[in-house]
Amino acid sequence: MTGPLALLDSASLYFRSFYALPDSMTAPDGTPVNAVRGFTDTIARILTDRRPSRLVACLDADWRPKFRTDLLPSYKAHRVAEPGDGGADVEEVPDTLTPQVPIILEVLEAFGFAVAEAAGYEADDVIGALATREKDAPVEVITGDRDLFQLVREEPTPTSVVYVGKGWAKAEVLGQREIAEKYGVPVEHAGPAYADMAALRGDPSDGLPGVAGIGEKTAAKLITQFGSLEELVAASSAGDSRVPLKTRLRLSDAADYLAVAPTVVRVAVDAPVEQSGPDAVPTAPADPERVAALAEQWNLGRSVDRLLAALPGA
After folding, report:
1. Which residue of 12, 45, 141, 170 could cross-link 166, Cys pair, CB 3.0 to 4.6 Å?
2. How many other CB atoms sit within 10 Å of the CB of residue 95?
3. CB atoms near residue 307 (< 10 Å)
4. Is the alpha carbon torsion for 72, 199, 121, 78 positive or negative?
5. H or E, element range at 31
């Protein structure tokens, strides 16, 4: 049986590895490699537990895209370490994580895993574009970020999220039914309904203010009742009696935010994705000598061994 296409939210996974493992894991030169080892182990677990036939590590070409900040300047603004000079803003990242990212990319390349990004877009957009285009196999999005719950669907290609927000040992596989049960949104379009609910409720971690006074349960109830954020706003503007007066006032006060929120929150499935190569899971490393050299240089021994053992040709 053909396995799924695994789409990795790479930054989400290596950030979680960084915080889950001690920075006492170092290379011979003293460089911390906890994120590298944790990320490498995560791929091994994905191959062992989920058995994908294809895998793409998706990257942020721009973690705070201009098309989103032009609409909503507060979007991820609290994470900016320093404003870009005519270019992309620099994200606040722990000093000991930054030097590990190039090593992670080297490991991916040496093994022969595909990586993908899109100029001016986030990894979420890359994942959304690849998931939407997929016609041949089920898709599993592997992330610790709830934003990607909006991608779950059954047709035309089943897409689910393997959510690792509580670590791989407590990973949850969430499809339409699970998202509907968890958040009280309609099962038949749980993904889009989740995005609308998230826009309405807001998310301080992403700089999304939401609508004051409307929490998650109320947001889910309203989206379920009206079918979409657009329909809710239209009904409220028309004075529909199904929208309580207090809610109408709150929506009216947040009109400017609600006009842009859908574009900011929804993934851009038309992102111009560029991929490094074929996405078939390699049966053996593309460059075994380089894998061995990286393992020695960065003290990745057992993590690399576990990934080698997890390859389908091992």
Report:
1. 170
2. 7
3. 27
4. positive
5. none
* Distance in angstroms (rounded) separating the CA atoms of residues 128 and 166: 23
Tell me whether residue 126 is exposed, middle or buried, using C-beta atoms within 10 angstroms of its C-beta: 0 to 12, 13 to 18, 19 or more: buried
pLDDT digits (tens, 9 = 90+) for 14-46: 999 999 999 999 999 999 999 999 999 999 999
**Cβ-Cβ contacts under 8 Å for 211 (sequence gap 6 or more):** 200, 201, 202, 219, 250, 251, 253, 254, 257, 258
Pairing of strands 5-9, 139-143: parallel
Pick from 113, 121, 112, 105: nearest CA to 35: 105
| DSSP 8-class letter at 64 | S
The CA radius of gyration of the chain, in Å to the nearest whole number, is: 21
**Which residue is associated with the tokens 């290596």?**
14
Q: How many Cα atoms occupy the beta-carbon half-sphere of 311 within 13 Å?
A: 20
* CB count in 10 Å sphere of residue 147: 23
Q: Could you give the CA distance from residue 288 to residue 298 in angstroms, rounded to a whole number?
A: 15
Residues 6+ apart with CB under 8 A from 238: none
Alpha carbon distance 27, 300 (integer Å) = 8
Report residue 168 as tokens: 């791989």
What is the dihedral angle through the alpha carbons of 221, 225, 228, 234, rounded to the nearest 10 degrees?
-110
204's tokens: 């301080």
pLDDT tens profile 140-166: 999 999 999 999 999 989 999 999 999
User: How far is residue 12's CA from residue 16's CA, in Å, rounded to a whole number?
Assistant: 6
pTM value is 0.94
